[in-house]
């Protein structure tokens, strides 16, 4: 088992950037994306309170179901798709390898 | 008619740091006017986490964010600060005598001798749904992102969109005020307070408000002002409804906004300050709290409070360069009033 996974950020249609994330640091996807230079506000610091780390999961392995708090936040946003998630609520682990996400605009 | 206000210090931002700045300025007998883009005071504490306990306020082992805001309001009462809420400061001009004139989005003018920017993460702006031409109906022409004065909607036909607490709360409140209220929600369940969801369901059953679930408002129509909206259900069926107002309530998100355009020296969207007195690159303008940056900056309420105290001294010196101020403890003199 390796101690890193690869997730992909779709920056434009058919343009994906690979991001390597360590699995042994208990990071969230939000923290990894932020550290990779993506412009994510993450105002609440990862407490599912602000919605500014909203991403859409486009492909890859199945994730754990969102918690009630995450769903409540997502439902309050103007745009919510089938794949909507708060990246701060997704913990990086080995099962995430190959995940493809798209950042949602900050005001949606 | 433009509203014109004259004061000593104008504080931009009614977050915890802006509020405490009123206290510190008050101790120096300076009058304050506070402006905030939000309709309520408290900044992030009221908007993002009112029910969360905070553990690092000296003297309070724990305190709810909302309660801290209330306490700050009580603490500054003796200084009778004045407030302009629900308006964003858009522009500022430095006058010849070194004083300032500020302009808000709603045309309020504030004349002041010094400015303390306590703008935090910037002004909270509404999250807007992706509906084409929505912006054509903003500015009082039918689309409202917050309810400032419920009377605006008296005897009107309104559509509210959203699934959170504010969508539920305003549906309940406006059911008694408006002629017709329709709440459109994307999902089938509400995660807002359970009793509010129940109340809305009851209003729907009693025919006093209409609830449209699994649907979105997808189009807005009208010549000069809003005349109708189209609601599209998740199964693709559509319905066009004649309305006077559309109120999308999807929460707020912070944006630096106009502060970035005032010619102040910035670094990574924050205002650079001199830690001697938290002055910015423009004499007479100070920046405190989350909005500023300097080596070692910590975005904590506690640090913002400290900055407010030094800022007040700096502002005093800017206004009265010839007067000497001697620090007095509140324990010795009590809290002076204005
Ligand atoms: C979830 C969460 C938990 C936190 N927990 C803690 C904690 O435990 N302890 C701690 O010390 N800190 C905590 N913080 C950080 C703390 O909230 C901030 O440091 C604090 O709110 C900063 O206060 P402020 O007054 O500088 O700005 P803010 O609270 O951001 O207030 C700024 C205000 O300025 C207004 N504004 C901005 N621009 C304009 C304009 N142009 N015109 C009019 N109004 C404008 C905004 O609308 C806003 O209301 C937490 C933050 C979050 C998000
Ligand atoms: S960082 Fe605030 S919800 Fe994720």
TrEMBL record, chain A:
Q: Which InterPro entries match?
A: 2Fe-2S_ferredoxin-like_sf, 2Fe-2S_ferredoxin-type, Adrenodoxin-like, Beta-grasp_dom_sf
Check the record and name the PROSITE patterns matching this protein: 2FE2S_FER_2
Protein name per the record: (2Fe-2S)-binding protein
What UniProt keywords apply to this chain's record, in alphabetical order? 2Fe-2S, Iron, Iron-sulfur, Metal-binding
Q: Does the keyword Membrane apply?
A: no
* Cofactor dependence: [2Fe-2S] cluster
Q: Which GO terms describe its molecular function?
A: 2 iron, 2 sulfur cluster binding; electron transfer activity; metal ion binding
Does the keyword field hold Iron-sulfur? yes
2Fe-2S ferredoxin-type domain location is 3-107
| Taxonomic lineage | Bacteria, Pseudomonadati, Bacteroidota, Cytophagia, Cytophagales
Q: Name one Pfam family in it.
A: Fer2
Family (UniProt): Belongs to the adrenodoxin/putidaredoxin family.
What domain of life does the native source organism fall in?
A: Bacteria
Q: Which GO terms of type biological process are on file?
A: P450-containing electron transport chain
TrEMBL record, chain B:
What residues does the FAD/NAD(P)-binding domain cover? Answer: 8-295
Homology family: Belongs to the ferredoxin--NADP reductase type 2 family.
InterPro entries in the record, alphabetically? Answer: FAD/NAD-bd_sf (IPR036188), FAD/NAD-binding_dom (IPR023753), Fd--NADP_Rdtase_type_2 (IPR022890), Ferredoxin-NADP_redctase_2 (IPR050097)
Protein name stated in the entry:
Ferredoxin--NADP reductase
Q: Which organism does this sequence originate in?
A: Hymenobacter cellulosilyticus
Q: Which UniProt keywords apply?
A: FAD, Flavoprotein, NADP, Oxidoreductase
| Catalytic activity reported | 2 reduced [2Fe-2S]-[ferredoxin] + NADP(+) + H(+) = 2 oxidized [2Fe-2S]-[ferredoxin] + NADPH
Return the Gene3D superfamilies for the record: FAD/NAD(P)-binding domain
Flavoprotein among keywords: yes
SUPFAM superfamilies reported for this sequence: FAD/NAD(P)-binding domain
Cofactor details (free text):
Binds 1 FAD per subunit.
Q: Which Pfam families match?
A: Pyr_redox_2 (PF07992)
The GO molecular function terms of this record are:
ferredoxin-NADP+ reductase activity; flavin adenine dinucleotide binding; NADP binding
What does the subunit comment say? Homodimer.
At which positions is FAD bound?
A: 36, 44, 49, 89, 124, 290, 331
Q: What is its EC number?
A: 1.18.1.2
Reported cofactor(s): FAD
User: Transmembrane stretches, by residue range?
Assistant: none
